[in-house]
Input
Amino acid sequence: MPATASTPRGLDHLVIGVRDLDAAGAFYEKLGFRVGARNRHPWGTENRIVQFPGSFLELVTVGDEGAIPAHGERRFSFGAFVRDALAQQGEGLSMLVLESANAKADATAFQAAGIGDFEPFFFERQGKRPDGTQVRVAFELAFAADSRAPECGFFVCQQLEPQNFWNPDFQQHPNGASALTSAVMLAEEPAVHRAFLATFSGGAEVLEGNEDYVLALPRGRIDVLDPEAAQGAYSVEPDTTPARFLGFCVAVPDLDAVEKRLTAAEIPFQRGEERLFVEPEHAYGCMIAFEQG
Output
C-alpha cells in the first residue's frame, strides 16, 4: 500500500557516501550486486544505484564541489550534506529515505509535528534503461531532522515517473539479493530517537528489544541498536557518536553461496547464526549484511 502522511512509510533508499564512485561500484559488483551506470545531479553530486523491488541503494560522491548550493532558510541542500558527511564522518551510510505518496503533504506533516521545516524539493534527470535508451525520471523530496542525530539525514521520496525508474532487469543480482530488508542505526541512547523515528516513519509499529528496538515498515525495517546490541550482532566497537547509521541488510536465498562468493573475491566477512556481514572498514564505511530470505 502506498504511504501517505498518516500511514507507515516503507524503505525507499539509502544514501551511501563514497569518495571513489567507480571503485565503490566495482566493490559492490564483487559482492554480487548489479550496479547501475553513473548519473549526474545538477547540484554537484553523482551516483550509481543498486536496485531492488521498491527500494534501492544510492552510492553517491561529490562530482563538482563548485555546483553544490549552500543550505538556506527552509532549504535542505542534499549536495552539501553529502559533502560535509564525507569530510567530517568519512565514507558510509549517511541518509535514510522512506517512500512518499505526496511529498508536499509529508513536508506539511513534518512541519506540524516539529521534525522538519523545509520546502519540498523537486528534481528530474535522465535515466537509462538496460538497452541504453534514455528516459526521464523525476522525484519530489521532503526532509526531516532529528536534532539529537545530526550526523543522520532523513527524507521521504515521491517517485513522479515510477514507470521509468523501476526495472525488473536491474533487480536481478548474481548474489540472489531480492530485497533491502533493513537500515541499521546505532544510538548511544535509542530511546531518545524513538519519538522522531515513529513520526518520520508515519507511525510504524515498534517491536521492543531491551534498550534497542525495531520499527517494522510496510517494506523493510529500521533496526535501532544500542552499543551492546551492535557489538553482539555486528562486532561494532563502542564510540562516542550519539547516533549514526551503521549499514544495511539485504535478503538472499543462500548464505552459503554468498560465503563462497566473498571468499573467492577475498572480501573479509563474519558469519553468525542469522546473517553474514562485511564490516564497515572493509566496505567503504558501510556495514553490509546478508540475511536468509
In short: The longest strand covers residues 134-144.
